[in-house]
Amino acid sequence: MSLPCPEEIKTQIEAGVPGAAVSVIANGSPSAQHSLLLDHAHARAVAEFLRDHAEWRLDYCSLMTGVDWLDAETSEKVKVKKVVKAADGSESEQEVEEVRKTKKPGYLEAVYHLFSMEKKHGPVVLRMRTRDRGDGARLPSLTPVWRSAEFQEREAFDLYGIVFEGHPDLRRILMWDGFVDFPMRKDYVPPVDEVPVVAPQRPGAPGTSSEARR
Amino acid sequence: MADDLKDLKIELSKNGIFTTTLEELYNWGRKNSVWPLTFGLACCAIEMIATTMARYDLARFGAEVFRPSPRQADLIIVSGTVTKKMAPQVVRLYNQMPEPKYVIAMGACAISGGPFRDGYNVLKGIDRYIPVDVHIPGCPPRPEALIHAFMTLQKKIEEQALAGESRPRHLHKELPSEFPVPAFGAHDLEPPMNRDVFTAEPGNPLKVIQ
Hints:
The complex is a heterodimer of chains A (214) and B (210). In chain A, 23% of the residues are buried. The longest helix of chain A has 11 residues, at 6-16. Helix content of chain A is 17%, strand content 33%. Chain A contains four helices and nine strands. Chain A has helices spanning 6-16, 43-52, 150-160, 209-213, and strands spanning 22-25, 35-38, 60-69, 72-85, 91-104, 107-116, 121-129, 138-140, 163-165. Chain A is α/β, with parallel strands linked by helices and 214 residues long. Chain B is α/β, with parallel strands linked by helices and 210 residues long. Chain B is 30% helix and 8% strand. In chain B, the strands form two sheets. In chain B, strands 1-2-3 form a three-stranded parallel beta sheet. In chain B, helix 2 packs antiparallel against helix 6. The chains are: A alpha/beta (214), B alpha/beta (210). The interface between A and B is medium-sized, with 19 and 17 residues.
């Protein structure tokens, strides 16, 4: 049996895991690889449900990666009716265009691609989003469910700063332990250590002091 | 050697008499038996291995004995990307080699960081920490380029004076033979470069940039 559509998976998850809040994130591109956004509290239970589901048997997590979403600001033009004072002192109601800005706080995201070795199908894409990009960058670890996520969750911790709660061995994997930055975040600025190389000036060349003295 | 001495030497050799100087004999021996360290970092190492094998055969130049220990090596070929995490180990290996010792920086990464220069994890050239004798550009350089670099190094060894002000670094007692190993800092390696080595100052016997 092949996999059902994401909406059907969502319905079955919500029936199988009481209280789980799952939403489908549509992918508008031609690949149409829609994904399921999980809530933190039930993520582990949903993962176990998917792995142990009798028909789907999603027993293999082929990929786990992080995504950084910066704070986004969208602006839209809205027509508003306002009382406008004209030059001669008379007041009249007119339609005025106003720019309204809405701020969307950024977050970090973890993406898991699941396949079934047994049933030879997939992928099912799972997502989890952190509360914010600061202290709230915490997610439940899915390493206890799929062991293959262990090093990749360490990598996401190392480069994005997502803390995976319940991970058996959460240490930096590529950078050294004393490193404090998260280099794959979009606002990371690498240290500036370039040295301006000054070519030794020839005596008598234009602009040197010996030229000026003459 | 002065020109008249050279002429005398040629004249004598025409009559079947071989003369040499201690300096020439010593350098001739050294340049034809350079033992590189068995040490590779990335894809350039594959080209380095190819250089030592039958087709390109670095043994023709007396450098076929790759030593597995820095204590027995006198040339380190920095072949490949030096990550910031690997840089302290490269400097430590260099420090463990006995004098006189030489460095070839092979490929774009080893000489400058190459395509990874603007990244967060790659050292912008090994010449920031140790004095490099020959730089080879290329990504990766072909075996011919490594052979050319090796012949350049041989020429350099051949021309080194054993006395006088122009003698090489290892014959200057006051100059260092070991260089500080960088430490892992909060944002970068500490220090990000050894300013004694990585300098544009002319006349510095440790200088790298000419």
